[in-house]
């Protein structure tokens, strides 16, 4: 998620030191957990992202008021767990698709009302990239941990740079009806920083004998697109929260809100990555 920016330097309100400390400490814990499990790979890493995906699905269904809520969440959560298990067991893709669709149908069937059924289906579909794409990238022979570090760098650089450039320079609003504090200066700052961050990860990796299957020019272009996608993903989640009339997706993470609040931009980058992988290798 791209943090809200101040509307202008003169109008920015300082963040209370206690709140800022809480946000920083929470962020450090999340970053450490993501990096440590990425280093381990395998089951610990897959379970880390399964937990994130289930949390997102629960937040989505809570916000949209699906009933019977706990039953639907249990069915969809089991579906996400089944997809993780099949991935770790290296099952055939067709089996994973069939199992996913079966749990999706069961969850939708359990929901009362057509509109709520759509929300239930969308919660599962939204959670799947978070659950599967990071482990897929970690296990990919041409990407591995360097590919993950690129994803993290693009999202984190976008988030941090958009926040600080937006607060520093202010200026025209990016999308006032959805997120009134975000500015074009923050958007541009995020894109520039993400492109630089993506290239930096590739350069450092190359110095240690690890490479990504793209030229530096191609990686710069992909980082640029991924940063835009990250910020669009953030706006999409803001639109959902505005529709549901909530400020945060939950209060699970001190100082940050919910898991969806933190991973909306990363979700969009996961979608970009899987589209690129499918284009390069349709058997993924």
Care to describe what's here?
The structure is a single chain. This protein has helices at residues 17-40, 42-64, 69-88, 93-110, 114-139, 144-169, 184-207, 216-244, 259-280; strands spanning 173-175, 179-183. With 284 residues, the protein is mainly α. The protein has one domain. It has a two-stranded antiparallel ribbon with strand order 1-2. Helix 4 (93-110) packs antiparallel against helix 5 (114-139), helix 7 (184-207) packs across helix 8 (216-244) and helix 8 packs across helix 9 (259-280). The longest helix is centred in the C-terminal third of the chain and has 29 residues, at 216-244.
Structure summary:
The chain is mainly alpha-helical and 284 residues long. It has helices at 17-40, 42-64, 69-88, 93-110, 114-139, 144-169, 184-207, 216-244, 259-280; strands at residues 173-175, 179-183.
Average pLDDT score: 91
How many domains would you count in the coordinates?
A: 1
Distance from first to last alpha carbon: 27 Å
Helical coverage, percent range: over 70%
Total of DSSP H or I helical runs spanning 4+ residues: 9
Question: Taking strands numbered 1, 2, ... along the chain, how are they ordered across the largest sheet?
Answer: 1-2
- Uncertain runs are 6-15
- DSSP summary, beta strand count: 2
SSE series: HHHHHHEEHHH
Strand proportion = under 5%
Query: Which structural class do the helices and strands define?
Result: mainly alpha
